[in-house]
Amino acid sequence: MVDPKKIRSLVEIMTEHDLCELSYKGGEEEIVLKRAGARGGPEGSFPSMVYSQQMPQHSYAPQPAAPAAAPAAPAVDADAGLVAIKSPMVGTFYSTPNPDSPPFVTEGSRVSPNSVVCIVEAMKVFNEIKAEVSGTVKKVLVKNEDPVEFGQPLFMVKPD
To answer: What does pTM read for this prediction?
Structure first.
C-alpha cells in the first residue's frame, strides 16, 4: 500500500512547479499523477492517480460531476465585487496561531496586504497566509482544522 504522505508530497511538488504530470518509481511501487488545470487546463481540477505494484493497476480519478440544472431565473451573485484569499498549497487550515488564541480574522475584520489571516500546515511546516489585499473580511469559508486544496478560497474580502 502506498503511503498517503508520499502522495501528498508528490501533489505538493506538482502544485509548486505547475506540473501536468509526475511519475515516481521506487522499488516495486510506481505512482503516476496527472492533473488538468496546469498550463491552461480547466481550473479546479484535482490530480488523478494511478498506483501500481508489479502487475495490478488501480486508477483513482475524480468522478465527473453531474450537470447542474439551469436556474429558472438569473441569480444575483452574492460574491460580486469580493476578492478571494486562496490557499497557496494543500494542507490543514488553522484559524488561530495556537489552540488558546482567538482567530487571526473573523467576518468583519479589517485586513491589509501584510495581515496574517490564517496558517496552512503542510508536511509539519506551518505557513502564515497573508491577505495580500486591503479590505474587510466578508466571509470565512473554511473551518479550523479543515483540509484545504491548492487554490481553494479561504476568505472573501471586500476590497477598499
So the answer is: 0.52
Measured CA to CA, the distance from residue 53 to residue 24 in angstroms comes to: 12
The pLDDT of residue 44 = 46
Q: What is the dihedral of CA 115, 97, 7, 49, to 10 degrees?
A: -60
Q: What is the reported pLDDT for 40? A: 44
Q: What is the mean pLDDT of each run of 10 residues along the chain (160 residues)?
A: 75 79 76 63 46 45 58 62 93 94 95 95 92 94 95 94
> Which residue is it, cell 488558546?
100
- Extents of the domains making up the chain: 4-60, 83-159
CA dist., res. 34 & res. 19, Å (int): 8
What is the dotted CATH code of the domain comprising 83-159?
2.40.50.100
3-class SS letters over 66-120: CCCCCCCCCCCCCCCCCEEEECCCCEEEECCCCCCCCCCCCCCCEECCCCEEEEE
- Residue 97: what pLDDT? 93
Strand partners, 158: 136
Tell me how far apart the alpha carbons of residues 87 and 120 are, in angstroms, rounded to a whole number. 8
